[in-house]
Amino acid sequence: MTEPAVRVRWLVGTVHSVRSETATARSIVLDVPGWPGHLAGQHVDLRLTAPDGYQAVRSYSLAAPADGQRVELTVQLIEDGEVSPYLVDVVLPTEQVELRGPVGGWFSWDPDRPGPVLLVAGGSGIVPLMAMVRARAAAASTAPFTLVYSVRGPAQRYYAEELDRVDGLDLRMVHTREAGPNGRPPGRIGPADLDVALGARVYVCGPTGFVDAAIALLLAAGHDAADIRSERFGGQP
């Protein structure tokens, strides 16, 4: 007999702290009593309710691994959005929002997995991949990790100081519009940026065009399509 599906219910989260990542992005840490835990790479649905009863729901990637009832999101401002302007510019500690999750599971990484990992991020696509980087550190995993992170310029980089001090992470920054301190000329991601040994589990996240271009480069380099997992959204890095 088939087991009944577990219904994911809405939980009330209280904002614990907020932290700016860039001029238009903010990390929000929430305490969510009853949170069931999650895997790095999963996401949540977040619901806001206006005084007149109008509700808006958006999905956001989890930016950190499971830590009891604590949940961390990083939100990029969308100028004409209904939810992100409030989360980036308004919400303060002690305020409450509703969360439902975790959602997804295919695009996730388990610290018990020993093999090498290649993370490829475009813009705000770094968020679920940062959860994987943090999960690796928290578990003291020795799995080889390479992160290729593409942004327009240094000012658009999330988690800048933290990424620079992660032990054992091969960090490769790609700046598409403005040169960064690593000496790489501005330009889109190319074969040399993705040069890692075949057989790595690959996670690609970012705007649709970026993800399609990265996957094409990976396949051309000989990576098996079965080793590549992707998530995509609108816009350009």
Topology:
Elements (H helix, E strand, L loop, with lengths): L9 E13 L2 E7 L11 E7 L5 E7 L8 E7 L7 H6 L6 E8 L13 E6 L3 H13 L6 E7 L8 H5 L4 E7 L25 E7 H13 L7 E6 L4
Parallel strand pairs: 7-8, 7-10, 8-9, 10-11
Antiparallel strand pairs: 1-2, 1-6, 2-5, 3-4, 3-6
Pfam families: FAD_binding_6, NAD_binding_1
GO molecular function, one term: oxidoreductase activity
Protein name: Oxidoreductase
Describe it for me?
This protein has helices at residues 84-89, 126-138, 160-164, 208-220; strands at residues 10-22, 25-31, 43-49, 55-61, 70-76, 96-103, 117-122, 145-151, 169-175, 201-207, 228-233. With 237 residues, it is α/β, with parallel strands linked by helices. It has two domains: 10-103, Elongation Factor Tu (Ef-tu), domain 3; 117-233, Rossmann fold (3-Layer(aba) Sandwich), CATH 3.40.50. A six-stranded antiparallel sheet has the order 4-3-6-1-2-5. A five-stranded parallel sheet has the order 9-8-7-10-11, with helices on both faces. The radius of gyration is 18 Å and the shape is globular.
